[in-house]
Amino acid sequence: MVLNKKIFLNSSSINKDDFIKICLSPDNKLIPDLRDNLPGKSVWLPADKTLIVDFLRKEDLKTYFGVSKIFSPDLVSMIEMILRKKILSSISMTKKSGVLAIGLDAIKTQLIQKRHCLIIVARGAKSLADKSFFVSKNISVFESLLEQKDLEKSTGKINVKYVGIFSKNFKKTIQVDLNKLKGFIDNH
């Protein structure tokens, strides 16, 4: 049975932060615990849609939890939805904290003054991959994971295709969730 982070970490290129905690509710439903605060027995699975779907088909989870039946009402979609909400909520908090730049010009201005940055590019916006200004070991770029309308809603602005986060703490938290979300997006 492969339900242990150490086994996955030793056998693949999965990062230790790229796991989803799955708990079993009292009524035998699988619940994603993305904030790591639910009590009871749980498993950590890689943040990968294909691997999670494979595990749901096996008997390993029933055996691990000691139950004869497990209900998993579209667990993959639920995880993706929760991750998106968590990321967008964090983006909104960065705006309120004054460490968010909206638009490429604002991001460039901030990059000149600060060293670390996380840039999120909306699906359908022009890629930053070929722009050397945005290539640095201190800059992380995530493209096509979120919709423009999602960025607009979380920032309270219109026509938002690019956001930059200029706080190490927010950057790390959001980056971990974006890496997890990548495992659930079909276009990766």
Describe what this molecule looks like in 3D.
Helix content is 41%, strand content 16%. It has 188 residues and is an alpha+beta fold. It has two domains: 69 residues; 102 residues, Ribosomal protein L30/S12 (60s Ribosomal Protein L30, Chain: A). The strands form two sheets. It has a four-stranded mixed β-sheet, sandwiched between helices. The longest helix has 23 residues. It is elongated. The chain starts with a helix and ends in a 6-residue tail after the last helix. The model has no long low-confidence stretch (mean pLDDT 88).
Q: Might you state the CATH topology name of the largest domain?
A: 60s Ribosomal Protein L30, Chain: A
Q: State the low-pLDDT regions, or none.
A: none
- Gap between N and C termini, in Å? 27 Å
**How many beta strands in the DSSP annotation?**
7
Largest sheet: 4 strands, mixed
Average pLDDT metric: 88
Tally of separate helices: 7
Sketch the topology as an H/E string, one letter per element.
HEEEHHHEHEEHEH
Query: Class by helix and strand content?
Result: alpha+beta
Helix percent band? 40-55%
Please give the CATH class of the largest domain. Alpha Beta
- CA-based gyration radius: 18 Å
Shape category: elongated
Q: Considering the protein shown, what is the CATH homologous superfamily of the largest domain?
A: Ribosomal protein L30/S12
Which sequence of strands runs across the widest sheet?
A: 4-7-5-6
Beta-strand portion reads 15-25%
CATH architecture identity of the largest domain: 2-Layer Sandwich
In the residues, how many domains can be counted? 2
